[in-house]
Amino acid sequence: MSDFLTSIGYGQWILNTLILLPLIGILPIALLPAARARQVALAVTCLELVLSLGLWWAFDPATTAMQFSVTAPWLGAWGISYTLGLDGLSLFMVLLTTLIMPLAVLSSFKYIEQRERLYYGLLLALLTGMLGVFLALDMFLFYVMWEVMLIPMYFIIGIWGGKNRLYAAIKFFIYTMAGSLLMLVAIIVMMFQVWKHTGTPSFAYEQFLAVAPQLGGLAPWLFLAFAIAFAIKVPIFPFHTWLPDAHVEAPTAGSVILASILLKMGTYGFLRFAVPFFPEVALSPAVTSIVVALAVIGIVYGALVAMVQPDIKKLVAYSSVSHLGFVMLGIWAATLQSVQGALMIMIGHGLSTGALFLLIGMLYERRHTRQIADFGGLARVIPVFSLILVVTSLASIGLPGLNGFIGEFLVLVGSFGRYPWATGIAATGVIFAAAYMLWALQRILFNKLDKPENEHLADLTPRELVVVLPLVAGMIWLGLYPRPVLDRMDAAAKNYLHLVQPGLERGSASTTAAAPEARP
Amino acid sequence: MTMVFDPATPAGQTVALLPEVVLSVATLAVLLVISFRHDGPGASRRAGWLSLASLGLTAVALLWLSFNVPEDTGIGQMIALDGFRFVGSALILLVTAGSVLASLGYLEREQLVAPEYYVLMLLATIGMLFMVNAQDLIVLFLGLETMSVAVYVLAGYDRRSAFSAEAALKYFLMGAFASGFLLYGIALVYGAAGSSNLVFAGAQFAQGSLSTMARLGLGLLVIGFGFKVAAVPFQMWAPDVYDGAPTPVSGFMATAVKTAAFVALARVLYTSFSGSVVEWQPVVFGLAVATMVLGNLVALVQKSLKRMLAYSSVAHAGYLLAAIWPGSAVGVSAMTFYLLGYGLTTIAAFALLGALGRGGERELTLADVGGLAETRPWMSFAFAVCLLSLLGFPGTIGFIGKWYIISAIVASGHPLLAVLLVITSIVSAGYYMPVIMAMYMRPARAPLAYHDRGLAGTARVAVAFSVVLILALGVWPVQLLELADGAAASLAQTASQATGGQ
Questions:
Q1: How far is A237 from chain B (nearest CA, A)?
Q2: C-alpha of B152 from chain center
Q3: DSSP of B194-221, one letter per residue?
Q4: Any chain A CB within 8 A of the CB of B410?
Q5: Contact A147 B410 (CB under 8 A)
Q6: In B191-223, which positions are buried (b, 16+ CB within 10 angstroms) versus exposed (e)?
Q7: Distance of CA B213 to CAs A262, B275, B443, B502, Å?
Q8: Alpha helices for A334-399 (secondary structure H)
């Protein structure tokens, strides 16, 4: 396979193609009749998926260097270039994105009935933006992609969303933008530091990485600017309040993309930028205790709030807050297991929560309600749907044999040595997750079939099966045989640990040094 | 390059003023034509097209002049011959052409057909060109007054509207007041420097710290310009005037007048007071912060879209002041580039506003543009692009402009103003985004308010041109950034004549 890929020069054109193809796809959508829009969008996203699959084989797991890099000058006088590249960190985010998008398109066929051209055009623009965020190795380009992606999502929530969509859309937009504009200032400040130290202006990622240790007193402020932007996106408690609104009000495809991909941008930002740039700030005792505390609060709070939600979509939305807390804990614990676990949760959460939102969407299309109380006994009426929902929920809970388990287990094992107390509390989140998920399943699928409206629901159609089965297959595969995935992220995880090493050393040095002084 | 003309001779001076001479002659020609054919919409339309032709001729003259500037222009001419002037003049011609295009259909619809309108616009443009080329405070003042008097009349052009009359009167009184400040400042600077020439004054002020008289003169000059660019706390006339004036005139004031005033202000500060940056930096800092904060916060609570755009243009004056603040060439470059982006966007935004409303557009609110995307997808798209550009969203020229201003501020080593700039920009999302939201996400209000008519043909050209440029330059601004850099460098060179050539 990799020989074939080399023979067609795959590495040289793949990243450009992935970024540009969706934009080119917007053209036929604009020109063809509205009824054709969905077909074009499906064709383009499927093509993206097929093309991106080659990355799996072409990717060299042994190296930490950026692969398939392409670069072109943009604003040369300011050191801005169009530079893309991919490593073990971004590989899975890209594959997740290209996998989710055709499913999101397919799941919209019935749900989206008006202004289809605009809708599918926005989805394709969103695809370019999301891939751009994961692939950009130029900080200016990264920022542009990070922001550009907001607009399609804003429209998708605001036009095709639920009852309270306008509020949710503007809240999503302003929260995210407020965080990221300060990051723009931080990026520009760092660029001038690069300029000062090397004599040439550059927005290149490696240059930023190289200059970051020499920033001295600026570092905490710059870290803060980056961290707020990413924390809002993750979202870390207490910046999470936009999430339930946006997830619940968005149309199914919007919720799926938000949960599966957009949230990962925050944690990706921490892994790629915020922590490696400023390890000594990020892993200093003060910042660490704040972040770990917020992560644990997020885990427990998200789970507890999920438990009392009457709306199943809101339940899943809050469960995301809980799951992403594990990712943050894993990133900050900075051991090989915890980082690999964090990456595994990022992938696994993308699959299982994406699937959950898709299933909820399918249920909503049939019953036009999402209240848990309106259901009951569905397992007897729609057995296939119920089976898939059970499997997906169990994956989300972290049942061994399914994807959720690997990630959470690795995070807990990896973090326990460093933060035993926090990890202990976080582990209760797993129990709460079982509680809210299984309780919800019981009320929806089992119990008594006491509502006459539920007696004649139709089971999943072939189209809907095509939408969810790839995700279920992915969950089982990741749960049973995660080795190939772990191999491919191994180098990236080690590279992350190598980059944050100065922070770990300093953190442990200061705790041992401070300990004797603390005694009276 | 061969010496085409010698600016030191009277004939050379005339050549140095070629664009202004061409425009003046053309304006008189238009005036002659309309005095013969005055009645009806046909005559008004003809005057509009002739004005466009005049602006085109002026642009050709400007282009010729910019390529034939003698290498040694001599020190201390009254008329600048640097790239900064040429770029500033080109900007003014561009936004004036946009205003004329936006006016053509608008005046007929509002039954304001009188061909003098266009002559007034051309007269104002002549004044602006002089403000931009002035290297002498007296020339600057003459240009400013020529411009102001014409714009006072334009603001009150809708004689049937009490608000238009109010706008004109308010603008006139405030403008006269501001001119007083400016003139007093000029007198004091002259007294302190012994010359009204910017370069000679700069040479004088470069030696040691400023005298009290010079400092007072500088302060009064800044106040005078503060009125003209509507910087807080000298902004109180602006919302009422922008609101009451016919919409294309509001667009003209928000772009051309602001451009001329900012270019002139930058020239005065950078040529005469380049040695005393620390003296004026705190003042500009305070003005910029106050303008950004107040402009954005007050825009947030406006109900009328026209008033919202008026306050937004106040906020943008704050961003432009922030670009001047670092006192560096890159700051001037950022200001120049931002003026272009802001000018293109604002002209298009006011043209669209004019097409959406009726009777001066004072009553147009968010509810009136509800559901516009269903009936007028292209207009909504254009308006959305304009608003995103004003917000400074990536992919539009507004983002490149804001990025450049932030870079200029950060380059000075004190990023505080940049942080304040982005925080106020976040506030601005609170009033730009609801308009987009209304157009795309809210249902249309019944009965449809004025959705029957779209943009008139000429305004459509102006808007389409602007939107294409907003997007194209948002992705590929390289050449324009270079142009702005060149303009700023030439101003810095002129300034160094003052400080280095003593």
A1: 22
A2: 16
A3: S-SBHHHHHHHHTSSSPPHHHHHHHHHH
A4: yes
A5: no
A6: ebbebbbbbbbbbbbbeeebeeebbbbbbbbbb
A7: 60, 16, 61, 21
A8: 336-367, 378-381, 383-397
* Distance set, CA B445 to CA A99, A310, B439 (Å): 41, 34, 11
d(CA A332, CA A344): 15
**Cα separation values, B331 from A317, B84, B323, B328, B405, Å:** 46, 13, 5, 5, 7
| A-interface mutation test, from B440, B471, B473, B481, most A Cβ less than 10 A away | B440
> Which residues pair with residue A70 across a beta bridge?
A84
CA distance B118 to A269: 54
Task: Decide: B115 and B44 in contact? Cβ < 8 Å.
Answer: yes
Q: Is the peptide bond between B443 and the residue preceding it cis, with omega within 30 degrees of 0?
A: no
**Cα–Cα dist B202/B186, whole Å:** 13
Instruction: Give the Cα separation of A168 and B441 in Å (integer).
Output: 12
Instruction: Return the closest-CA partner of residue A102 out of A313, A256, A317.
Output: A256
CB contact under 8 A, A173 and B429: yes
The whole-angstrom separation of Cα B36 and Cα A198 is 68
**Contact between residue A99 and residue A152 where contact means Cβ atoms under 8 Å apart:** no
A70 burial level (CB within 10 Å; 0-12, 13-18, 19+): middle
Nearest CA in chain A to B482: A77
DSSP 8-state assignment for residue B418:
H
Question: How buried is residue A352: exposed, middle or buried, by Cβ count under 10 Å (0-12/13-18/19+)?
Answer: buried
* Residues A28, A40 contacting (CB under 8 angstroms): yes
Please give the Cα distance from B59 to B437 (Å, whole number). Answer: 39
Phi, psi of B31, deg, nearest 5: -60, -40
Q: How far apart are CA A504 and CA A333, in angstroms?
A: 10
Dist. CA A164–CA A177, nearest whole Å: 20
> Rounded to whole angstroms, how far apart are CA atoms B133 and B18?
11
| One pLDDT digit (tens) per residue for chain A, 520 residues | 778 888 888 888 889 999 999 999 999 998 888 888 899 999 999 999 999 999 998 888 888 888 899 999 888 888 899 999 998 899 999 999 999 999 999 988 888 888 888 999 999 999 999 999 999 999 999 999 999 889 999 999 999 988 888 999 999 999 998 888 889 999 999 999 999 899 889 999 999 999 988 888 889 999 999 999 999 998 898 888 999 999 999 999 999 999 999 999 999 999 999 999 999 898 888 999 999 999 999 999 999 999 999 999 999 999 999 999 999 999 999 899 999 999 999 999 999 999 999 999 998 888 888 888 888 888 888 899 999 999 999 999 888 888 888 889 999 999 998 899 999 999 998 899 999 999 999 998 888 888 888 888 888 889 999 999 999 999 999 989 988 999 998 899 999 999 988 888 775 654 444 434 333 3
Residue A318, C-beta contacts closer than 8 angstroms, at least 6 positions apart: A244, A302, A303, A305, A306, A309
Q: Do A178 and B426 touch (CB under 8 A)?
A: yes
Q: Which residue, among B198, B183, B190, has the nearest Cα to B274 in the 3D structure?
A: B198
- Asked whether the beta carbons of residue A169 and residue B441 sit closer than 8 angstroms, the reply is yes
In sequence order, which residues have a C-beta less than 8 Å from that of residue B202 and are 6 or more positions away?
A: B271, B272, B273, B274, B275, B495, B498, B499
Asked if B441 lies within 8 A of A192 by C-beta distance, the reply is no
Give the Cα separation of A154 and B41 in Å (integer). Answer: 44
Q: What angle do CA A82, A86, A90 make, to 5 degrees?
A: 115
Output the DSSP codes for A48-97: HHHHHHHHHHH--TT--S-EEEEEEEEEGGGTEEEEEEE-HHHHHHHHHH
ipTM score here? 0.91
Q: Does B417 touch chain A (CB under 8 A)?
A: no
Determine the 3-state secondary structure of B119 from DSSP. Answer: helix
The gap from C-alpha B68 to its chain's centroid, in whole angstroms, comes to 26
